């Protein structure tokens, strides 16, 4: 089967009356792109060929069925909500959502499917002082998250922002690995490395089935932490609820001005 990993199939804007027809046509094109016949796809899904034909002719399909169809072709289904700059201004969304700023005038919030890590970007992580201190001391080697792009490449730099009452950028670490597991498995495998109590762990992951573990290496505390006032004044920085991508200006300053770090 042709590998579709990394491929982008362009979507089109349609009227509501055309939506079912266009969805079906798009699915058919995707199947043909993968070099799979209706009969082959039906065998993989353990349904009759008529069921595949119905989906492609009508496009009237539930998300769960759509996911199975796409997965059977070796692809991954992702659904996102995209806010324009105008919508953001009217709704005053600001940073209420810890969402991915794809470009200057759009904010994309993932609804379905794992997030994709934006290439060649470093991140800023907001971490409570009791945990950030242990990271800088090398005691805490794993950071736990309810959501994080599992595709983040090895070596991605995570700048550590220590929240109130410290309110400062205190250092950096390299992300050696991002692991997605059921919450119960996250606890069994990483609770000691994450330096977290069971009660706090349960509260943090309440309501979600999967968690993410970020394993740190090459931790580098800043000799002089950068306080929030300076971050705001120089870089228009606002602390994220969870994480954000470092802007080019902030990234360059942290690399050039604060490269003299203690080990």
TrEMBL record:
Gene3D superfamilies in UniProt: Hypothetical protein, lambda repressor-like DNA-binding domains
Family matches, as InterPro entries: Cro/C1-type_HTH (IPR001387), Lambda_DNA-bd_dom_sf (IPR010982), PUA-like_sf (IPR015947)
Name of a matching Pfam family: HTH_3
SMART domains per record: HTH_XRE
Residue span, HTH cro/C1-type domain: 27-84
Protein name in the entry: Helix-turn-helix domain-containing protein
Organism name: Bradyrhizobium ontarionense
């Amino acid at each position: 089967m042709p590998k579709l990993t990394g491929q982008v199939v362009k979507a089109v804007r349609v009227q509501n009356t055309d939506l079912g027809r266009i969805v079906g046509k798009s699915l058919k094109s995707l199947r043909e792109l993968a070099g799979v016949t209706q009969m082959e796809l039906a065998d993989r899904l353990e349904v009759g060929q008529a069921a595949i034909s119905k989906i492609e002719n009508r496009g009237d399909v539930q998300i769960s069925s759509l996911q199975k169809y796409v997965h059977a072709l070796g692809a991954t289904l992702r659904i996102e909500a995209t806010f324009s700059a105008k919508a953001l201004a009217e709704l005053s969304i600001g940073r209420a959502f810890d969402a991915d700023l794809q470009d200057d005038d759009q904010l994309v919030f993932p609804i379905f499917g794992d997030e994709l890590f934006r290439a060649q970007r470093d991140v800023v992580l907001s971490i409570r002082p009791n945990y950030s201190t242990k990271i800088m001391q090398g005691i805490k080697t794993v950071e736990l998250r309810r959501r994080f792009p599992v595709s983040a490449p090895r070596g991605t730099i995570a700048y550590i922002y220590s929240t109130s009452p410290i309110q400062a950028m205190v250092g950096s670490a390299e992300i050696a690995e991002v692991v997605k597991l059921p919450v119960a498995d996250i606890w069994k495998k990483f609770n000691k490395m994450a330096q977290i109590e069971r009660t706090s762990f349960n509260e943090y992951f309440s309501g979600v089935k999967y968690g993410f573990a970020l394993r740190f290496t090459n931790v580098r505390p800043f000799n002089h932490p950068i306080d929030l006032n300076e971050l705001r004044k120089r870089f228009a920085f606002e602390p994220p609820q969870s994480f954000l991508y470092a802007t080019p200006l902030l990234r360059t300053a942290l690399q050039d001005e604060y490269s003299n770090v203690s080990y």
